[in-house]
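Supplementary Data S3. Sequence and structure tokens for construct A.
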Amino acid sequence: MWGATRKVPSFCFVLEVIEPGLLVVKHRRMDGFGKFANVVVLKGEQVKVVDERGASLPDCPALLKALLPFTSPGSWDHKFNLLVQLAASMRAHGHGGSLLVVPAGSDAWRQSIVHPILYAVTPSFSALAELMRQEINETNENLLVAAVGRAVDTVAGLTAVDGATVMTDQYEVRAFGATIRRPGGSAPVEQIVTTEPIAGDKPVKVHPVQTGGTRHLSAAQFVHDQRDAIALVASQDGRFTVFAWSPCEEMVHAHRVDTLLL
């Protein structure tokens, strides 16, 4: 060891040992805010080159917009990066969980939830929303980073409770411990498309159960019925999947992003 530093320069090479046999090459982002960018994941004899730009995703504007925080390096500023930070925190607590992100101006998501909701949040928990309205500068950067981190961990911690956490796209938490249901008249999900942000990955159509367990199946059904929402699902084994509706493919798209979160 040559020494230590309290601040890693932008684009500085970092090699992190996650666990025995699992190494990640990453770098600090240019603005320095949020999670480091992963470049290569080395697991045993496997070498996975990370493709943040989502080349394996279809050329579908609506889907790409929904997955923007996880597919566009240029958009990983502190506001867009918030969903990535939530995903990383959900994965880190190791209990598994689901976060449903719904439009702020609509209550249509309630049709896909069993009532009464176990833990309805009234008024909405808005700490994240208030922090996102603040502008970052040299004088408040450290304080804002710490405050965002605490708020992110609080929301991510709610997902460890049985059931799903519901948050608006303006970062206001509406409920947690919610049970997803299929509305009357809605068809069950039989097939979804899966991708992973790895160079050379190809889309594959599978039954939603093949992406995980009951939590994944429920998330796929929710997005199938609430097509302007997305669902973030963490498995206890570390897998992390983002579900979004793809109008071009006319089915739910599951994008597995755990390689971005290590």
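Construct B, processed identically:
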Amino acid sequence: MTLAEPTAGLPAGETVITIAEAADRAGLVASKIFDELNAGRLLDIRVDSVRYIPERFFTEDGEINRFVPGVLALLSDGGYSHRESLEYLFTPDDSLPGRPVDALHGHLAREVMRRTQAMAIS
């Protein structure tokens, strides 16, 4: 599903998937996705009582991007709410360039981790 309007820290136009879709793509049972959500290694939003996960948290192969849990842990440890974490990850940063969540899929992933760690301790 593509968000028609900004929702819970995600911008309009962002693609989100249900927990069942996420589990299917990752080759996991839905309870494993719930475990990841409950542990804070993934974040979700609710639209009309349905829980959705940003599609960008997954690789093209359907696996959970290996940097996402670490970045979310750093943001949580730094006192960022779920909404603030999503806003940070999905807001363009000209100095990267692009959005931190997109940089997690390329050679700038370690830079995003470094910046997130610096934000968390400041």
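The beta strands are 16-18, 45-47, 50-54. Helices lie at 19-26, 30-38, 68-77, 82-90, 100-103, 109-121.
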